[in-house]
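User: New here, please read:
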Amino acid sequence: MQQVQQDMIVVLDLGSEGNTTVARDIRDLGVYSEIHSHDISAEQLGALPNVKGIILNGGQNRIVDGAAIDASDAVYASGLPLLAVDHKARRIAGLEALAAWPADASERTEALRAFVGDTCGARPNWSMENFIADQVELLRRQIGDKKVLLALSGGVDSSVVAALLIRAVGDQLTCVHVNHGLLRKGEPEEVVRVFGEGLGARLVYVDAIDRFLGKLEGVADPEEKRKVIGAEFIRVFEEEARKLEGIDFLGQGTIYPDIIESGTKTAQAVKAHHNVGGLPDDLHFELVEPLKMLFKDEVRACGRALGLPEGMVERQPFPGPGLGVRCLGPITRERLECVRESDAILREEFERAGLAGKVWQYFTAVPDFKSVGVRDNARCLEYPVIIRAVNTVDAMTATIERLDYTLLERIVHRITNEVPNVNRVVYDLTPKPTGTIEWE
């Protein structure tokens, strides 16, 4: 059996806001890195492949549940090289310490290089090809000769998971595409065409529009929406699994920003992602999440290395709850159509303007209130449409795309004239932070 080859440096989550930066800086050195909880157990640490060293990043003076944060006994007993940065670590042999990361980027890189390469002896063998080889092997170990069901939305994340699972376990995979009525215009048809006909995946299409919209009727809180959608997804998959027989695993396109934003043991949640915060307690599957330690740009690189079409790899990010978190407040079919139709116009105009591959994410949202306008020389009360267009690398921060006013005017004209019940369009200029990319 092929053994996992990539060396790994573990960054412990001790409450520092810079954990993701440190992990990505290590990957930039060509060494794989993962972030794990400060209270990792000996069993959990031992299950991680090829760990060469551990970084205790921050945590000094951090209090959680009345106790100061520190690394677990397992970390100190591991015998692995340890680097403590801005952290009052226990004094043990072999531990290095930095009062803080150097402010200068080149000095910071050298400090990391010295610990990762010289002290830990970690090899610079982090690459997408090696990552894929590792994940294929790990998937085969986890799944064995059993069957796996994949929640296939058609987005980048679930598409890459599908490609990994096809390579790892082939016809042991069944993809399920659920049309919950919250998809973009033409999306269900595209998913069936690309995956069922193009890639030859075993694909089950489920029309559950009325079912989901019924469950969501009157639900206004975005966190509750995510939980309702996540729980109902699982119920649909359980039903499909019973039809197929022998399904023990559920595949998901969870990526690392989903986990961070859903909250950790040391950080408050920004928002629950339906595939993280929305899963029911009585889940009957073991989860398969091969991308959960990757950032969005790394997921795209993984898709390219797997040979997925560029159009699929560069596909617009789309939230798991779909248009449900872009139809702000309680979902109605009327406002849902406003979102769907205005989003289709926005995407069409961005394509014509040559922005489709240049702007990271763009979409529309419709709030649960109306504004006064004038239509056919008479007063009207109709919905506003919010346009959002942002650029980012890893989805942790985002900047606003400065759109040409001529383009904006054309989009406004089309939306207000072609989308029923809409009389106003606004452009959101808020970066992340303070805003998140999605409105809910």
User: Anything to note?
Assistant: The chain is about 35% helix and 20% strand. The longest strand covers residues 378-391. Confidence is low (pLDDT under 50) at residues 268-278.
